[in-house]
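[step 3/7] fold_predict: job queued, chain A
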Amino acid sequence: MEEKRMITVTIDGAAYTYPYGTPYRAIAADFQDRVPCDILLVNRDGKLCELHKRLDRDCSLKMVTAQDVPGIQTYERSAVFLMLKAFYDVAGRGNVEQIRVEYSISRALFISARGRFTLDQALLDRVEARMRELSAQALPIKKESISTEDAIELFQKEGLFHKAQLFSFRINSRVNIYSLDGFVDYFYGYMVPDTGYIRCFGLELFESGFVLRLPTLKDPSRLGDFRPPKKVFRELYESSKRVEALNVSNVAELNTAISQGSATPLILTYEAMMEKKIGDIAAEIAARKEVRFVMIAGPSSSGKTTFSHRLSTQLRACGLRPHAIATDNYFKNREDTPRDENGNYDFEGLGAMDVAQFNEDMVRLLQGEKVDMPTFNFKKGAREYNGSFLTLREGDVLVIEGIHCLNDQFTHALPEESKYKIYISCLTTLNIDDHNRIPSTDARLLRRIERDARTRGYSAQATIKMWPSVRRGEENNIFPFQDSADMIFNSALIYETALLKPYVQPLLFGVPRDSEEYIEAKRLLKFLNYFLPVPADNIPKTSLMREFIGGGCYHA
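[step 4/7] structure written:
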């Protein structure tokens, strides 16, 4: 009998040999004791591979756990698959009309369910018990490649029409599907090899549906705290109802509208809905006579600049005179800026702001005094005064945009009634299909990749590389204060990914294959493949999307 060919595998700089055809799972088992949590995938020379795959070439391997972003994404996806299987088992396949994974909220996924059953905690407890039973059995999660035509027929028979419709726009001739103990589904991304890897989860009744609680990147061994921001959730819920009313609640329905020539009416309708919302906010501000400071904060690439301009236009229509203030002008001088644990300047924290000077200036303005407003010179790293004086008169309001605008420590000297706080974010409610959600962070990252390339000359690789640092700053300085806002504004546009596709796709193809950022670039490219493109011709010049693709009437 011919001896198996040996393959050289390099791990952490050391070379090891394994027989040709060894499953990656077996190699992972040899290195499991070197990492603090389960190995879920391997990174083979910059390509993610599921553990059921087999060794077929000399290569370098990195172990991927739930403490890595691709790992926690794999865990979440697998947990959803397990939950769906258990829900159908408990409720009965014929009794389930629809289960929809809607959006992420506070370390959990909000899920809606309809059918011939009573959705209560007792049902969820039975579903969770079934999940744990399936987990204990370590049942294999099998992957199979079938033709696109067969996939469409399969999901039509299963009653998962949203998936069948999605594949009708697929160019690829084949589709990867997953099966678990007879239950078949399609997922955008990788899976763990069996249910034994899925041990940390919980189900709780919440609002009109329930949540699947999941672990965090920092500690995959325990559930993250579930402290849902009620105002943000309400805006997400209302936004999802708006897109449902337009018959565009997933990518397949969006593609159908585009392919039938209905993109322009859809764009104009959604833009009109957004303008009405901004007008309603302006009217509410105008009705509160004591408001003098409109404080706007939100995470990166939420469209804060364009929103501020459009809000100012609506405030003028309400008889007010808005004046724009950028909190960046109140940065401390460079030599006074605190440093982080790595010795780098920490520009994100509140300590980087001259809070005392900001409050002194705002209080003086509130008292009707004439104030010399500063400008921060970023090249010199110093604040300058160039005779830009401002006095607040009756009917004047300051529209102030900045990362700390919702943090009351930043505006501690201002009377609460003088402030109107707005949290703006791209809260995506359009999903790929009922079981594959689109994270809001993906929508914002695509926006930022295009804007960085257009306005700063940054490559997609550079933007992807800095994104984790941007996200950490948001987690610390923005998200904790989001529910303290008087108003939540959702800047997500239903058509935006279809619009961004022809802009961002070439930039992502420019990410080098041997770079660490290539895995994320490849994931985003696969994501964009689901969308038919929309041209920019009929995007209004006032649209928030003009902040990212250019051609707008505002300096954004």
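[step 5/7] annotate
The radius of gyration is 26 Å.
The chain has three domains: 6-65, 71-231, 232-549.
exit 0
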